[in-house]
Input
Amino acid sequence: MAENDYALEVNDLTVAYEHEPVLWDIDLDVPSGVIMAIVGPNGAGKTTLIKAILGLIEPAAGQVLIFDQPYNEQRHLVGYVPQRRSVDWDFPTTVEDVVMMGLYGQLGWIKRPTRHHRAITHEALEKVGIVNLADRQISQLSGGQQQRVFLARALVQDAQVYFMDEPFQGVDATTERAIVTLLQELRQQGKTIIVVHHDLQTVTEYFDWVTLLNVRKIASGPVEWTFTAENLRETYGGRVSFLKSQPEMMQPGQEQ
Ligand code: ADP
Output
């Protein structure tokens, strides 16, 4: 299906809020079939990068390609899991309805869901371990359950490229493990997953590709070559105390 191996290409992307650049001249080439972390300090522009790629924010400059074609022509290949906190969880609706919203691309807003659509929805809920909550109001969910609802909604979209904004934020260890397993399954199916991630400790375990961002792109590539002490210092500006607890990680100048 792809003419080249890149699921995502970002060229010369610059985003500014009120004339203040928050992303500056970003270039990214992300091969298909990787799980990539986007890491960087608070305010580095991680969420802005995802929103700009998805056309939710108008960039000052730049171009985004999904499998070699402009994003606008490839929307149907893209799934999005927004930050859990960005949603009003008091809205009166059920888990099943929220997950089914992922099908609206196929359904249109007017059509009623068929038994087939319900089956797809329940399959996704099963996959994320909350099929028993299908009829529950979303206001009655824990943080981990909310995150699983979002993942199920992304699954029914059956996308090729997924963008997830902090899917591990505020979830318990069991949910974190379940999400990691799900991401690995998606990768095995050849999907590409791009994740805004906060926990530097788990980058080498969970991801095979990483982008280090702080307004500018500091580095992007395979974790083993890119997630280096030098790049982390450049991204976080000096003190990254966790480095001491990562003896297996390469230090600058060290041979592999
Ligand atoms: P991150 O996800 O890395 O924490 P963000 O992309 O959320 O960073 O934000 C990048 C910068 O843009 C921050 O300085 C933030 O304050 C600013 N910012 C984010 N959203 C807006 C907005 N709607 N209007 C103005 N500034 C914003």
Q: What stands out?
A: Residues 17, 22, 40, 42-48 surround adenosine-5'-diphosphate (CB under 6 Å). Residues 173-188 form the longest helix (16 residues).
